[in-house]
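> forwarded from #structure-qc
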């Protein structure tokens, strides 16, 4: 259902408030550079710091700016099933193509609890869901046998896998079939994920280098692994630099280096990227030919 380079969009702030003008400019640039879909209000969008009104303002702004040119996968996850459903209902009414639903964090549910969470959402909403597994943030891992059960839910159309376990691509292809949409959640593992059957990435780096990431996705889709390796090597330092300090501070700093209309402001508890991270970003941007 989804494929290619899909940025997990940062949320621009200015003076403590959502900067809607910068967001529109960011989205126009992303689409012009070849991004195939957009994800507002994901982890990189600092969704955990957004109030309900802000969360919905950002989703609305993204859908309006995209204006049907690319699909919008709205971040709707929560540690609370009722809140995730509330987000999904808003996203459906706003015109999102799908909801990105992270495994419930903090509560540390059992595998049975994770299954019940997604089944409850599917029963209450027909909005397609992209399951997001990121145990480094949520603590609880969606195990392969659990994901196989979730993939059988008709409205579960894809997974964003940030487990770091590449064997799961093969395991899920065997369990759910080769047509089930598998998206990488790790930029630095996008290449091997694609080789094993993945069809794209929900990416942090694509915020900063959308044209390169789109070209990389195209090379992978076409089986041009030589070109893909060349682009992977070109972008590898940038992938690493995006996490040289707490995300999304490095990505926001990078965008401020590329666009005079973008402010690097983050929201507490995220603070501005430190000196070492800024240096890593600058070197990586230069290596990629972006500055």
């Amino acid at each position: 259902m989804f494929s290619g380079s899909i940025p997990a969009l940062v949320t621009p702030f200015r003076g403590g408030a959502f900067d809607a003008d910068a967001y529109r400019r960011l989205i126009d640039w992303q689409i012009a550079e070849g991004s195939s879909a957009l994800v507002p209000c994901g982890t990189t969008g600092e969704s955990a710091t957004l109030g309900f009104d802000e969360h919905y303002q950002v989703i609305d702004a993204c859908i309006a700016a995209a204006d049907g040119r690319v699909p919008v996968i709205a971040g709707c996850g929560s540690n609370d099933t009722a809140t995730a459903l509330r987000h999904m209902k808003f996203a459906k009414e706003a015109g999102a193509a799908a909801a990105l639903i992270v495994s419930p964090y903090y509560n540390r549910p059992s595998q049975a609890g994770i299954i019940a969470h997604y089944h409850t959402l599917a029963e209450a909403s027909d909005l397609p869901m992209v399951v997001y597994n990121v145990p480094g943030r949520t603590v609880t891992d969606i195990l392969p046998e659990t994901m196989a059960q979730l993939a059988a839910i008709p409205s579960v159309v894809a997974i964003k896998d940030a487990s770091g376990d590449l064997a799961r691509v093969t395991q899920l292809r065997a369990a759910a079939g080769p047509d089930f949409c598998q998206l990488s959640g790790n930029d630095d593992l996008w290449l091997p994920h694609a080789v094993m059957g993945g069809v794209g990435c929900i990416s942090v780096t694509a915020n900063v280098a959308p044209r390169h990431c789109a070209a990389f996705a195209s090379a992978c889709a076409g089986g041009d692994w030589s070109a893909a390796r060349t682009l992977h090597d070109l972008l590898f330092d940038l992938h690493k630099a995006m996490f040289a300090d707490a995300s999304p501070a490095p990505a926001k700093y990078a965008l401020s280096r590329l666009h005079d209309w973008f402010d690097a402001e983050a929201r507490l508890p995220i603070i501005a990227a430190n000196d070492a991270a800024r240096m890593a970003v600058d070197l990586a941007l230069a290596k990629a030919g972006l500055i």
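QC bot note: Strands lie at 4-7, 13-14, 17-18, 73-75, 98-102, 129-133, 156-161, 181-184, 200-203. The longest strand covers residues 156-161.
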